[in-house]
Specification:
8 strands
Length: 174
């Protein structure tokens, strides 16, 4: 991928993130979970516009699962409440449309990968209390390979251009 395309993708991710944070002030959510691309991740969301929208960042890693690999992911996301059905009378929406931009790096004994993945997904929230909840989101993931370096002549694999993305989070709202 040439430099101008890399800059365009990074610019798109940056604008997506900044446009979300330029709205009315709101609340914060802190979450931890597991996702197909995010792996084990922790992060935070910022809620605004009466909890109709939220934007967030998370960091994922799984170095303790596979000692022979180094993996990390940085995820930026923007969510918009849909179906406008609130839980009780508070502004606790159950459904969100989620747009994620994930940069992930994988270093193993065969390859070094730097990839940006873009994912539109649908998120469902299950409230345990007004502050504690679990969310599940799923959708397609579109991968854009920024850089890869092959270390051996052995053909191991290549990330598909489109893959499913599933993530489960446990979150707390303050």
């Amino acid at each position: 991928m040439n430099r101008s395309k890399q800059k365009t993708v990074i610019f798109f991710c940056f604008i997506n993130f900044l446009s979300a944070f330029s709205q009315i002030a709101g609340k914060y959510e802190f979450h931890a979970g597991y996702g197909f691309y995010e792996t084990v991740n922790v992060g935070a969301n910022y809620l605004f516009n009466r909890n109709i929208q939220k934007a967030g960042i998370s960091i994922g890693f799984d170095n303790f699962i596979q000692n022979s690999e180094t993996y990390f992911a940085i995820s930026l996301e923007h969510n918009l409440a849909v179906f406008r059905k609130k839980k009780r009378q508070e502004s606790l929406y159950k459904w969100y449309v989620d747009s994620k931009s994930i940069y992930w790096h994988l270093k193993d004994s065969y390859y070094n990968w730097d990839v940006v993945s873009l994912s539109p997904s649908l998120q469902r929230i299950f409230y345990f209390t007004d502050k504690l909840f679990m969310s599940v989101d799923a959708g397609p993931m579109f991968n854009i390979v920024l850089h890869n370096k092959r270390k051996t002549l052995k053909e191991i694999g290549w990330p598909y251009h489109v893959m499913p993305d599933i993530r489960v989070l446990l979150a707390y709202r303050i």
